[in-house]
Amino acid sequence: MAAAYGPPRHHRGRGCLPSSPAASRPPAWLVPVPAPLTSDTWSLLLPLSVAQLMVILDISAVNVALPDLAKDLNIGAADIGWTITATR
Q1: Average per-residue pLDDT in the chain?
Q2: Kind and range of the H or E element at 12?
Q3: What CA–CA distance (Å, rounded) separates 64 from 74?
Q4: Sequence-ordered list of residues with C-beta below 8 angstroms from that of 77, at least 6 positions apart, any chain
Q5: What is the DSSP letter of 10?
Q6: Which of 73, 72, 70 shows the shortest CA–CA distance to 81?
Q7: Contact between 69 and 84 (Cβ < 8 Å)
C-alpha cells in the first residue's frame, strides 16, 4: 500500500487550514499598539548606541593596526587570531 502525502481527505473543507490570508490575521482589537518612545526609552537607547559605536570603532582600529602590530611584535600568522581575541 502506497503512503499518501498531504492532509488526510476527511479534513478537507472542515476549516483546518485558513481559506484566505485574511483568515490567518488576528482581529484589529487584538494587535498590540507600540508604545511611544519616552524619555526613559531614549535614556536607555542613547548609551547603548554609543557603547556599540565604541565597540565597532575599537574593532576597526585593531584590524587596521594588526599588520604593524604583528610585524613589530614578531607575531606569526597563527597568533594573530589570539591578538584579535585578546583585544575584544
Answers
A1: 77
A2: none
A3: 17
A4: 70
A5: G
A6: 70
A7: no
Residue 18's contacts (CB-CB under 8 Å, 6 or more residues apart) are 24
Enter the DSSP assignment of 14.
T
**Amino acid (1-letter code) at residue 40:** D
Q: How many helices (H) and strands (E) does the chain have?
A: 3, 0
Specify the pTM: 0.49
> Average pLDDT of 55-67?
89
- Of the two residues 62 and 52, the one the predictor is more confident about is 52
Cell numbers 473543507: residue: 13
What letter represents residue 29's amino acid? Answer: W
**Per-residue pLDDT at 22:** 60
**62, 87 contact by CB (below 8 A):** yes
Q: Quote the radius of gyration of the chain (alpha carbons, Å).
A: 28
